[in-house]
Amino acid sequence: MTDSSPPEAKPDYRVLARKYRPADFSGLIGQEAMVRTLTNAIGSGRLAHAFILTGVRGVGKTTTARIIARALNCVGPGDDADHGPTADPCGACEHCRAISNDNHMDVIEMDAASRTGVDDIRELIESVRYRPTWARFKVYIIDEVHMLSRKAFDALLKTLEEPPEHVKFIFATTEIRKVPVTVLSRCQRFDLRRVDSETLAKHFRHVADEEGARIADDALQLIARVADGSVRDGLSLLDRALAHGGAGDSGDVDAGQVRAMLGLADRTVTFDLLEAVMKGDIKGALALMADQYAAGADPVLVLGDMLELVHWLTRIKVVPGVLDAPGVPEAERVRGGAMADGLSMAQLARAWQMLLKGLGETQSAPWPEQAAEMILVRLAYTAELPTPAEALEALKGSPGERSASGAPVQAAAPKAAPESALAGAAPRQDRAQPEARDAPQARVDPATFADVVALTAERKEALLHANLIGNLHLVSFEPGRIEFHPGDHAPPDLAGQLTTFLNEATDRRWVVTVSGDPGEATINQQKQAEAARARAEAAEHPLVKAVLDTFPGATIEDVHPADDD
Description:
alpha/beta, Rossmann fold, Zinc Finger, Delta Prime, domain 3, 4 domains, 5-stranded parallel β-sheet
């Protein structure tokens, strides 16, 4: 005789984020400060009438609100037990069970994202007047409270400030800045922290062991890093990883499977990619990017991993102890230390800025893969450029100075001074010998106005030099006499300044006068006119004309004379 009884139904599966939701304060991870404050407050009877919990998604705001509701209403096991509010709810009494099952008539949860209007709040205020039907306190939990309208907040203020003794409000929000300060001032605020990766990884190991799943430690570390401080996000990722890789006898879930599931680049490849671009190996970098893209890695996440690696290497240079952190694998410790030693702080800072800007470009680009490749090309070409400080030293032509490529930098030849300015000058001292600060400077005899201008630059009279080239229209010049017309922005005592300077710096007495004649164009105007003439001549060249016709809107910014070589 065959057995016709129906097969035994399997219990409905509960996702890990719900199955392992904490039921008391001891189960909250990473929130020690808040747990201690609430435990002491409940134990001493210093209970606030309103709480507001804020933090990023998935750190336990709603869970904490329900634990507070249990702590306020728990009566303990047994029919006649009633110990008052406790920081350790039993979980067995009728109130604890009803709150856990979301069917307690005196614990009212409201989603402000779907009930934002003032009418919803008025309904809530009307119910506040009535005492709890069953429990010790009537608890109102309002999630995403920042979504309430301004009028709804205003309607809530009076009741929130002076609620009945039997009422407690618990608000939760991810956008604390959107909550009016008038509401914040009436609540006891708790900021829930992001949970660090090490704590998350330990928690996920506990959950995996409870589920009988086999998953590698490096896979848990990866999930904890991607979770970005959110317990709920991490448990959801762990759920996916166990489903993706299997559990029990089907084998371990390793980091490679998790990377494939999330579309992440392999950590070793991230090291290879950054090393290639910092060495200028564009071909190798593009090949690595293409391989990762073909394997399913998201270009945006690849750049994000490179950005995170640059940050880590920078921290190694600043705080070498970072290498010895418990969660750093030995392979990464060895390679990270070597890369940090081989890169300068300037190179890392520049790579950070370029990757950060490139990440935004890639996210908004129509073809993220191509945008990411262009970021790598850009970074590879600039990796060997000298820093601003090195470039300045190269321009100074310091002895023995070398460029970023290792080639010696040729010292820039000093500009030749006018012969008249050198007449009677003392022999120049060797650079290695310090010059006496109080040694008198040689007196010269300028023969042209250009010599006068050059002399102000040589004697570091910057303001006078700027006025001579930008605010002086020369009318006439002869040694010992200058006549000029002042420009619109010339100082009123320009003639006096120039007379005093020349009488102190030269061997003759000078007379500088102001004229009513317009005079010549200023030196700056003459340079601008010459540059405009050069651009106009260049624009007539057939090759330049062809370029301008090919690229509408293009302009000639500057013209440099061709080298004779």
